[in-house]
Amino acid sequence: MYLAAKTKEGSSYVQRLHALDITTGAEKFGGPVVIQASVPGSGQGSSGGQMPFNSLRENQRPALLLLNGNVYMGWASHGDQLPWHGWIIGYNATTLQQVAAYCVSPNGYGGGVWSSGGGLGADSTGNIYFTTGNGDFTANTGGKDYGDSVVKLGPTGTVVDYFTPFDQANMESQNFDLSSAGPVLLLDQPGGLPAPADRGSEVGNDLRG
Predict the structure, then answer these.
(1) Which residue among 12, 84, 90, 137 is least enclosed by CB atoms within 10 Å?
(2) SS3 (DSSP) at 199
């Protein structure tokens, strides 16, 4: 059984990934491991061109995802106390070595992966799907911030595709988090996409695996 835990140790806060034997409760695979990560970035809380994972400010929200031998976790804020960012971090399920680290808003703020506690979505090729909440959005102008978006992430933490509502700026200013719920993946069906009844044969892009 895999779980993430956050503890206060003296004056420091630490988050760890545990792998437990469900028959004894004993730690497995040399665990637990301290959850740490850093990606290039200049957003709130960055230093020297790097955006570190902040164990105090980050709150592990969605259910953990076990996918193709890796365990993935998502984070949002702990009480909206800045600086905070959305994160997806993955570890190998048997070695507990980190395999992916992705920050939703490395050059801004926010973009928490809330999902109301629901799990991250995934497809058979290892892509991960999740929603983000209020925060900076710059992806449409070549940036790396994906606030209020549906994001498709590759297994190693690279954005493959995304969808962002046209009124993202309004959602951000009004705190209308898109990530109040997580995505649901539908099985691919044979044939093409059906045309909307009121739009003739026009069909939009989708985020299918």
Answers:
(1) 12
(2) coil
- Rg (C-alpha) for the chain, rounded Å, is 18
The residue among 82, 69, 102 whose CA lies nearest residue 2 is 69
Burial of 190: CB neighbours in 10 Å, binned 0-12, 13-18, 19+? exposed
pTM, whole model, 2 decimals? 0.88
- Distance (Å, whole) CA 93 – CA 158: 20
Alpha helices in the chain (DSSP H): 168-174
- In the predicted model, is pLDDT for residue 194 greater than 90? no
Longest dimension (CA), the chain: 64
Q: Is the pLDDT of residue 21 over 60?
A: yes
User: What are the tens digits of pLDDT across the range 26-38?
Assistant: 999 999 999 999 9
- Find where tokens 């779980």 sit: 3
Query: How far apart are the C-alpha atoms of 197 and 28, rounded to whole Å?
Result: 54
Are residues 114 and 177 in contact, defined by beta-carbon separation less than 8 angstroms? yes
pLDDT tens-digit readout, 92-110:
999 999 999 999 999 999 9
